[in-house]
Write a structure and sequence with these properties.
Elements: H1 40-56, E1 63-66, E2 71-72, E3 88-92, E4 102-103, E5 114-118, H2 124-128, H3 130-139, E6 143-147, E7 154-160, E8 163-166, E9 175-177, E10 182-187, E11 190-194, H4 204-231
Parallel strand pairs: 2-4, 5-6
Antiparallel strand pairs: 1-3, 3-5, 6-7, 7-8, 9-10, 10-11
Length: 239
């Protein structure tokens, strides 16, 4: 339903070089090891972003979108609690299939192209500092955003010459994702996607409701026309 965005991401390291020498690679079927989400707001926001993108790109089979899922990029990582997986991330140019976690060395060395972190009291410092540094220097993720579901703080960054530069907001406060070819912005206190034309990307339920309203409006229009014809002494069924 959308043209594939141009991948401007820097070249990635060889998967075999990701793990330090002498340390065996972990098996591909690693389970995600993420802690429970802090609030319903965080869980609902992650689910919304995943569902929206999967619905928008329902005809595409060349991406992976998930959230609150561990990204394994080094065998040393399991020994540290300093880093957790992104709240929401998208990888382009990969097979669209279910995964138990994202294991970089089993995915041709691919890291997320887009990451969204949801700020909370316990994660905000890491999301603005340590994680941002990891996404910039190790992942080299082109588009990084953070959003606070409670305060509605929203920021975005694009990787330029190896360093993140802030993405300037539009007049509506939206920020452009070059990788997705979409805007991200706040709508009814939720982080949502918007098309290049400025249209809200609808969920399956919103799409169904919009179609229902359109059909109802058409029905009412036809009924008014039929009533007008009857006022003029014309049988609408005879036309």
């Amino acid at each position: 339903m959308s043209a594939t965005p141009l991948d401007t991401r820097p070249s990635q390291p060889d998967p075999a070089a990701i793990a330090p020498a002498g340390i065996p690679l972990l098996p591909a079927e690693l389970l995600s090891d993420e802690p429970p989400l802090e609030t319903d707001l965080h869980r609902d926001q992650i689910d919304l972003l995943i569902r929206l993108l999967r619905w928008l790109w329902q005809d595409r089979q060349d991406f992976y979108a998930s959230g609150n899922l561990t990204v394994y990029y080094s065998p040393h990582q399991r020994k540290s609690e300093d880093f957790r997986g992104p709240d929401f991330f998208v990888v382009l140019g990969v097979e669209r299939k279910p995964r138990k976690s994202w294991v970089v060395w089993e995915e041709d060395g691919k890291y997320p192209h887009v990451i969204v972190e949801l700020l909370s009291d316990s994660t905000a410092q890491s999301d603005r500092g340590l994680k941002k540094q990891i996404y910039q220097d190790i992942f080299r993720t082109p588009d990084y955003f953070w959003f606070d579901p409670q305060t509605l703080e929203f920021a975005g960054f694009h990787l330029v010459d190896g360093a993140y530069e802030a993405i300037s907001p539009t007049a509506q406060g939206w920020r452009w994702s070059q990788q997705l070819g979409l805007y991200l912005g706040i709508y009814q206190e939720k982080l949502r996607f918007f098309t290049p034309a400025g249209d809200l990307v609808l969920s399956p339920e919103e799409t169904a409701e919009a179609e229902r309203q359109k059909a109802e409006a058409e029905r009412q229009k036809n009924e008014r026309l039929r009533a007008k014809l009857r006022e003029l002494g014309v049988d609408p069924d005879a036309i």
